[in-house]
């Protein structure tokens, strides 16, 4: 088992609330996530468990990077309780964190090059709800068992198109109005 603690830096709440899918593509993910430390843990059950809490080694790593006022995003509700109880570190586990962790899991091999684990078909499940909503907006009915790297790339491309549309559509309309004013040529949407 391998452990890492990404530092998730959030530019406005947009990233985690509406566009957790940003973490599906490496260039976007690197804007928000930096690898702070990597440690190989051979026996996960000795690193963190309900009875013994957090191991000394893992506790040192967590406390090294924790800053007062921060909340640590945890991808497992049991781990959240163990860390909060044993280290008094506020943790966050909810649907948005699950979306982020799904994206991290799918980029693990790139974000943590030392990580050699390959994702199985089950690792793609459950499907990111944000990605599912995005694909459904375009009439793409993708079942969780159909998710592959190609589907994830498709979702990223669709998201890029939406960003471009939002970013430049107002400017294009204003330009169209200006062209119509100057030349009388109507520019329709």
UniProtKB/TrEMBL annotation:
Output the superkingdom of the source species: Eukaryota
GO MF annotations for this entry? snoRNA binding
Its organism's taxonomic lineage begins at: Eukaryota, Viridiplantae, Streptophyta, Embryophyta, Tracheophyta
Task: Quote the cellular component terms of the Gene Ontology held in the record.
Answer: box C/D methylation guide snoRNP complex; small-subunit processome
The organism named in the record is Oryza punctata
Q: What is this protein called?
A: Uncharacterized protein
InterPro entries linked: Nop56/Nop58
């Amino acid at each position: 088992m391998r452990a890492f603690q990404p530092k998730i830096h959030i530019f406005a709440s947009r990233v985690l609330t509406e566009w957790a899918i940003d973490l599906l593509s490496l260039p976007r993910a690197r804007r928000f996530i930096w690898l702070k430390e990597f440690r190989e843990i051979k026996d996960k059950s000795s690193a963190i468990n309900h009875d013994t809490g957090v191991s000394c080694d893992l506790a040192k790593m967590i406390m090294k990077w924790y800053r007062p006022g921060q909340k640590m995003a945890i991808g497992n509700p049991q781990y959240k309780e163990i860390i909060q109880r044993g280290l008094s570190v506020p943790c966050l586990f909810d649907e948005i964190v699950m979306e982020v962790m799904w994206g991290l899991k799918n980029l693990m091999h790139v974000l943590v090059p030392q990580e050699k684990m390959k994702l199985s078909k089950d690792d793609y499940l459950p499907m990111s709800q944000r990605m599912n909503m995005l694909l459904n907006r375009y009439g793409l009915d993708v079942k969780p068992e159909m998710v592959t790297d190609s589907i994830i790339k498709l979702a990223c491309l669709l998201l890029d198109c939406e960003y471009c549309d939002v970013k430049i559509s107002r400017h294009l309309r204003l330009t169209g109005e200006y062209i119509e004013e100057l030349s009388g040529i109507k520019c329709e949407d």
